[in-house]
Specification:
Strand 15 (about 470-475) and strand 16 form a beta hairpin. The chain is an alpha/beta fold. It contains 15 helices and 21 strands. The protein folds into 3 domains: about 5-100 and about 180-365 and about 435-445, TIM Barrel, CATH 3.20.20.80; about 105-160, Oligo-1,6-glucosidase, domain 2; about 460-525, Immunoglobulin-like (Sandwich), CATH 2.60.40. The longest helix is centred in the middle third of the chain and has 17 residues, at about 175-190. The strands form 5 sheets. An 8-stranded parallel sheet has the order 11-10-9-5-2-1-13-12. The model has no long low-confidence stretch (mean pLDDT about 95). It is globular and about 80 Å long. Helix 2 (about 25-40) packs parallel to helix 3. It binds alpha-D-glucopyranose (GLC). Alpha-D-glucopyranose (GLC) binds near residues 199, 259 and 320.
């Protein structure tokens, strides 16, 4: 299948490219820049939600999943994007948000206007409160974004929202909920999309009776990546994915990947059973610090979680919900060197890779001033958590001043910082040593490296014996990847050098004066001899 071994590129629609000049990315902006993605060498794009939305969570609060929000364009603009992408050989996948809707969705507006107990409310999770007159929420659940997970309507009933109060959770035991997702999938599949990314794919089934979280579970609960959160990964969620798969199976060559934050490897595997999703994001690499042993464990665990499933691993270094890896790895020059090395690691691992827009430019997170912050997390946490805006700053395309050709207008929805002139796609395109050209080069090698069979699902790798602070492996097809996360250079294993993330040094101490050493924070690819 086309996605086996594919490299997907996540387009965070608001931040990729603005065509109409209002400072917010849009579909025409993406279409304008598709040749850049084709030249980069990715196989597919994933578009974050561009559906009709009041934008309380920047589109993850969907008011109509079968309409384009005017902010981003219209259906004609979507069709043009799809046609252009297909013309360039790029597949297009789009987001599905089945866990919740916007509070402006027609279903929720009807629910809000109805009486307690009215069937209009049964598509969501309404409950009476606790305590005198029900003034306390029905249970002690916090929202993933901070504050309580319940909001009370003037008539006294409470509704559940695991995210913002503008994102009421759907009741997946209601038959219309599943039927509507099916309609939405068919709507986009009939237009020609190649697949879906499923938002909060481990969240739709709530624990029976909505019990209070134990003090232990509550303690330190900050995000849905907490593996012990009993509100996620309940067994009932798999019925939802079986339904998704039934719909997909009626179309040729389409796929779905789930956003699954699940700690237990064996439980991750359940999402990719033959009648469920094709891929499950694996976030272990994204969660691993810059440390050889932890990176190796992340790889081992990821491979273990798909072993025997017949599906490829799915590697992620960054996305629109987490700080960018340049910043996670220390920022500045060091962060960038490590990000270059990490790119070679990610792109050498057997399976599928997801590149987040801006990874290929080596973008760091931006320290935004308080007044610029827009993520609902900032308000909901009472300004204790700054949220995810730092990794969502619009892409710099060209020029010396913000917004760096992101928009024909003078500004962008999140301000780009001064000092990014050297990071623009145009500047990096002209620099053979840029991270952009490293990505292009790596993707070219990946594509051609002994054919696609190299990326067969579950292709295995063998770890090399290397110093403790380094890791390296050889794949079945002979591609060797070595990464030095330590502070001393290491001797490169034998093989023909294909690509390095930074300059290599000569082995001055070795008897073989022609030998090469891999400096700290650097990775290399070799062809085993
Ligand atoms: C997913 C999205 C995130 C969004 C949340 C709620 O985690 O990636 O951006 O806020 O779901 O829809």
């Amino acid at each position: 299948m086309w996605w086996t071994g594919a490299v997907f590129y996540e387009v965070y629609v608001r931040s990729f490219a603005d065509h109409d000049g209002n400072g917010i990315g849009d579909l025409r902006g993406i279409t304008d820049r598709l040749p850049y993605l084709a030249e980069l060498g990715v196989d597919a794009v994933w578009l974050t939600p561009f559906y009709r939305s009041p934008m309380a969570d920047h589109g993850y609060d969907v008011a109509d999943p079968r309409a384009v929000d005017p902010l981003f364009g219209d259906l004609a603009a979507f069709d043009a994007l799809l046609a252009r992408a297909h013309g360039l050989g790029l597949r297009v996948t789009v987001d599905l948000v089945p866990n919740h809707t916007s509070d402006q969705h027609e279903w929720f507006r009807a629910a809000r206007g109805a009486e307690p107990g009215d069937p209009e409310r049964s598509r969501y999770i309404f409950r009476g409160g606790r305590g005198p007159d029900g003034v306390e929420p029905p249970n002690n659940w916090p929202s993933v974004f901070g504050g309580p997970a319940w909001t009370r309507l003037p008539d006294g009933q409470w509704y559940l929202h695991l995210f913002a109060s503008e994102q009421p959770d759907l009741n997946w035991s209601h038959p219309e909920v599943a039927a509507d997702l099916d309609t939405t999938m068919r709507f986009w599949l009939d237009r020609g999309v190649d697949g879906f990314r499923i938002d909060v794919a481990h969240g739709m089934a709530k624990p029976a009776g909505l019990p209070d979280l134990s003090p232990d579970a509550l303690h330190g609960l900050h995000s849905m990546s907490d593996s012990n959160d009993p509100r996620f990964d309940n067994d009932g969620v798999h019925e939802v994915h079986r339904g998704v798969r039934r719909t997909l199976d009626a179309y040729p060559e389409v796929m779905a990947v789930g956003e699954i934050w699940v700690g237990d490897d064996e439980r991750v595997a359940r999402y990719v059973r033959p009648d469920e999703l094709h891929l499950a994001f694996n976030f272990r690499l994204l969660e691993s610090p810059w440390n050889a042993e932890e990176l190796r464990t992340a790889v081992d665990r990821s491979l273990r979680s798909i072993a025997g499933t017949g599906t490829p691993a799915c590697w992620v270094l960054s996305n629109h919900d987490r700080p960018r890896h340049v910043t996670r790895y220390g920022g500045g020059k060091v962060g960038l060197c490590r990000a270059r090395a990490a790119a070679l690691l990610q792109l050498a691992l057997p399976g599928v890779a997801y590149v987040y827009n801006g990874d290929e430019l080596g973008l760091p997170d931006v320290d935004l001033p308080d007044e610029a912050l827009q993520d609902p997390i900032w308000e909901r946490s009472g300004h204790r958590e700054r949220g995810r805006d730092g990794s969502r700053v619009p892409l710099p395309w060209a020029g010396d001043e913000p917004p760096y050709d992101f928009s024909p207008g003078a500004s962008s929805w999140l301000p780009a910082p001064e000092g990014w002139a050297g990071l623009t796609a145009a500047a990096q395109g002209d620099d053979p040593c840029s991270i952009l050209n490293l990505y292009r080069h790596a993707l070219r090698i990946r594509r051609t490296w002994r054919g696609r069979s190299a990326m067969a699902p579950e292709a295995s790798l063998t770890w090399l014996e290397l110093p403790r602070d380094a890791l390296g492996f050889v794949r079945e097809d002979g591609l060797v990847c070595v990464l030095n996360a330590g502070t001393e250079p290491i001797v490169l294993p034998p093989g023909d050098l294909l690509l390095a993330s930074g300059p290599l040094t000569s082995l001055t101490t070795s008897a073989d004066s022609g030998g090469l050493a891999l400096p700290p924070d650097t990775a290399a690819w070799l062809a085993s001899t």
